[in-house]
């Protein structure tokens, strides 16, 4: 029963440690900006060559997800002279997590008793040992930043930041990219039109 409990604990901790972390999302915006006046947007590209980090398929997923979010808020794409310019920034951090699991093993024992009655003095010896196993897991954390600038004032009016463990499975990324951008835009000052 002890081994079953130990195995259960190890499985639970493994799920929490190695399951991709839910995206941490934050945003900030200029409280003086009137977001209801923004009807058109254009893409200003990737800042600091961060577009070289992402493959073209994921870039397309990001752009389509952004277009869907803007369209749901009544905004249309305009190649030039748009109300706002959207710039994107992406950076990857390589991380390593270390997990330690200690296995305690019971010992051997021997005893001997002598005498009569209820209390019998005796002697004995015992031994036990523990082993600790370490495992390392390499993973990547991506930070995705969306900056939206007012074209006329050239000022930053909204910034959204999403930080998440990068999933190497392309099929999962096809689902998590739109989901992550949707989550990020929940904090946008203008709600989707119903």
From TrEMBL:
Signal peptide: 1-23
Natural source organism: Lutibacter agarilyticus
Chain segments annotated as transmembrane: none
Record-given protein name: DUF4136 domain-containing protein
Domain DUF4136: residue ranges: 25-189
Domain of life of the organism encoding this protein: Bacteria
Protein's UniProt keywords contain Signal: yes
Keywords: Signal
Source organism phylogeny: Bacteria, Pseudomonadati, Bacteroidota, Flavobacteriia, Flavobacteriales
InterPro entries cross-referenced by the UniProt entry: DUF4136
Short name of one Pfam family: DUF4136
Entry keyword Signal: yes
């Amino acid at each position: 029963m002890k081994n079953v409990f130990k195995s259960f604990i190890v499985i639970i901790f493994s799920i929490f440690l190695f399951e991709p972390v839910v995206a941490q999302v934050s945003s900030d915006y200029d409280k003086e900006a009137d977001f209801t006046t923004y009807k058109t947007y254009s893409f200003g590209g990737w800042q600091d060559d961060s577009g070289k980090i992402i493959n073209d398929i994921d870039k397309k997923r990001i752009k389509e997800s952004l277009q869907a979010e803007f369209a749901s808020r009544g905004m249309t794409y305009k190649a030039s002279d748009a109300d706002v310019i959207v710039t994107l920034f992406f950076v990857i951090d390589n991380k390593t997590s270390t997990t330690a699991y200690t296995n305690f093993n019971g010992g051997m024992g021997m005893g001997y008793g002598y005498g009569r009655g209820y209390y019998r003095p005796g002697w004995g010896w015992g031994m036990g040992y523990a082993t600790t196993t370490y495992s390392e897991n390499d993973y990547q954390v991506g930070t995705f930043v969306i900056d939206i600038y007012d074209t006329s004032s050239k000022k930053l009016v909204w910034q959204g930041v999403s930080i998440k463990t990068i999933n190497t499975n392309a099929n999962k990324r096809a689902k998590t990219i739109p989901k992550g951008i949707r989550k990020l835009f929940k904090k946008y000052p203008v709600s989707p039109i119903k």
